[in-house]
Design brief:
heterodimer; A: mainly beta; Elongation Factor Tu (Ef-tu), domain 3; Rossmann fold; 2 domains; 4 helices; 11% helix; globular; B: alpha/beta; TIM Barrel; eight-stranded parallel barrel; four-stranded antiparallel sheet; 8 helices; 18 strands
């Protein structure tokens, strides 16, 4: 059991939850934990949450806890808003894989939509130079923006309603950022990810996406969090747009919890996400 | 009152009476089901425990009475399109679609790992025709390290208009009887609750030569998103599991206990030792822990510890004494 350190509301629908974690294991950017919110049977299942920050990280990199950044969406997250310091939660993790880097790809671009910002605080700290393109419905859907400002990285903001940054979708500001040595990391709503993947594919830029699917166990046993990926055959040039594809006949399901949550965007069958 | 107690000498309290603690030989939780000697009655349910290795980092597999691996078919199976799971009130719906690596790959890639543990491995399997059932049973029959088979009969039969085997007594008899002739391994038949009278199917399985019955499989169900008016599962319908189904499962175990002689394995929403003991009281000789494994990877071990405590507290000598001792 892990003790709650703090649970603070940062925006109308977003909270930052600090959790003390004895003997904190090594956590890589993009990994997640499964939280059990009550001892009771409603809600029954654990919920996956990306690790937003490592807390109290000293010179040797040993942390004392983690911070979860969450959006109030349903019954479970509503219950979470009642957590107080010294309350206990059951934590399972860290789970899942991490991001890959590419040598020579120095123009690192992070594309985040709303709560999709979560995996990128730890990731952004791994690069000397990185650019964040952060989109949300309104200024109230840009959680953690202040944290990223403190990292002193380039940030461009867009909102659907224009209440902060450029008015429009975050995917509309990607194109002008791209160059031959670009590398994209993206997390956010499925529509956004699809569009980012399309742009990356068209321009031949490597792109990694972090996915979220309903899951029961988080450890590869329930097979609930399936996504369809292209087969494992050799890459071939597509007839239509010359992009690299794998034989669509050999598509298989992969599990977001164990094979992901980070996937090469080219791997995913986006039509069936 | 009024008696003279001065005659008795005051002496110090005697030391605590030695009672059978955990691991003490006086507490015997072993149970024989279908000829499989289990060290205790706690098993993990098929489909909730992967191929065992997924849980090895979290629990000591050696402590389990048995583990039942994810259902296997002759060929690997892809499973259903997502979304595949959704939480419902005190339960979950799944439409995984029996995704599995196939019997051959299981034997080659997964079984060697399981052989390292001192726990019984029971292999759940299924088919979409009687021939496929028999063929899988034959493949599994010839390998070392498998203690028994559990037949999932809640599968559609492609030869009979996709009618589920386990919903029809004649089909149940035919498929169980054919498999019985294809394997020497102990044969457990896992019953579907999606029928009018489970005792009819139970008797058909008994008549066909099953060695034990496990029940219940998931209850058929669905959930709808009112905003999109779409089903919450990619397959539209799925199977309900978890605490929500426990009362239904208990009733069915009790009914079957009264109507067949075979040993029963109780399944359905077992989250705690108390739940497990309820199943024993209505007639289960062993239990399978399912959805609880997802909630807490250590659930099966905690349930086992709790059963030991209950047996000690209530001076129950062995599992047999608990089975079917419902006071009605």
């Amino acid at each position: 059991m892990a003790k709650i350190l703090y649970n603070k509301q940062i925006l109308p629908a977003y909270y930052q939850l600090g959790i003390r974690w004895e003997n904190l294991p090594t956590i890589e950017p993009g990994q997640f934990v499964m939280l059990r919110l009550t001892k009771y049977i409603d809600p029954l299942l654990r919920r996956p949450f990306g690790v937003y920050k490592i807390l109290g990280q000293g010179a040797r990199g040993k942390g004392q806890g983690i911070e979860i950044l969450y959006k109030v969406l349903g019954k479970g997250t509503r219950l979470m808003t009642n957590l107080k310091p010294d309350d206990e939660v059951d934590i399972l993790g860290p789970l899942g894989n991490s991001f890959s880097a590419h040598s020579g790809k120095t123009n690192v671009i992070i594309v985040a939509g709303g709560i999709g910002i979560v995996p990128f605080y730890l990731l952004a700290k791994r690069f000397k130079k990185v650019r964040l393109l952060f989109g949300g419905r309104s200024k109230d859907d840009l959680p953690g923006l202040d944290d990223f400002k403190k990292l002193k990285i380039d940030i461009e903001v867009s909102t659907d309603d224009g209440s902060r940054g450029k008015k429009g979708l975050v995917t509309e500001i990607i194109a002008k950022q791209l160059s031959g040595n670009s590398l994209i990391y993206a997390c956010g709503p499925q529509g956004m990810l699809k569009e980012v993947a399309r742009i990356a594919d068209k321009t031949g830029i490597p792109c990694y996406v972090s996915l979220d699917k309903a899951m029961a166990c988080g450890i590869g046993a329930c097979l609930g969090c399936a996504i369809k990926v292209k087969g494992q055959g050799p890459w071939v040039k597509s007839q239509e747009n010359k992009s690299a594809i794998r034989n669509p006949q050999s598509a298989i399901y992969k599990m977001v919890c164990k094979d992901g949550p980070i996937f090469d965007a080219r791997e995913i069958v986006w039509e069936e996400i | 009152m009024g008696r003279d107690i001065k005659k008795s000498e005051v002496i110090p309290l005697p030391p605590p009476v030695e009672k059978g603690g955990r691991g003490d030989l006086t507490l015997d939780l072993s149970v024989n089901i279908a000829g499989i000697e289990l060290k205790n009655p706690v098993m993990t349910a098929s489909g909730t425990f992967g191929y065992g290795e997924e849980y090895a980092p979290y629990i000591d597999l050696n402590r389990l009475g048995a583990l039942v691996v994810k259902g296997l078919s002759l060929q690997p199976k892809q499973g259903n399109p997502p979304p595949r799971i959704v939480e419902t009130a005190a339960g979950m719906l799944n439409s995984i679609g029996l995704q599995n690596i196939g019997a051959g790959v299981f034997i080659e890639k997964k079984l060697p790992f399981l052989r390292k543990f001192d726990t019984k491995v029971i292999v759940n399997f299924f088919g979409d025709s009687i021939d496929e059932y028999c063929e899988v049973a034959k493949i599994l029959d010839s390998v070392d390290g498998i203690a028994g088979l559990e037949m999932n009969i809640s599968c559609p039969n492609k030869e009979e208009g996709w009618l589920e085997f386990g919903t029809n007594p004649d089909l149940t008899f035919r498929v169980v009887n054919a498999v019985r002739k294809s394997t020497r391994l102990p044969l457990i038949v896992k019953l579907s609750p999606n029928i009018t009278d489970i005792t009819i199917i139970a008797k058909a399985a008994e008549d066909a030569g099953a060695d034990a019955l496990s029940l219940i499989n998931t209850l058929s169900g669905m959930a709808v998103d009112v905003n999109t008016r779409r089903p919450k599962l990619g397959n539209v319908i799925g199977g309900l599991s978890g605490p929500a189904i426990k009362p239904v499962a208990l009733k069915m175990v009790w009914q079957v206990f009264k109507s067949v002689k075979l040993p029963l394995i109780g399944i359905g929403g077992i989250m705690t030792a108390e739940d497990a003991i309820e199943f024993m009281i209505v007639g289960a000789s062993a239990v399978q822990v399912g959805t609880a494994n997802f909630v807490d990877p250590q659930a099966s071990i905690k349930i086992l510890d709790g059963i030991e405590d209950y047996f000690e507290r209530n001076e129950v000598k062995n599992v047999k004494d608990m089975v079917g001792n419902l006071r009605v």
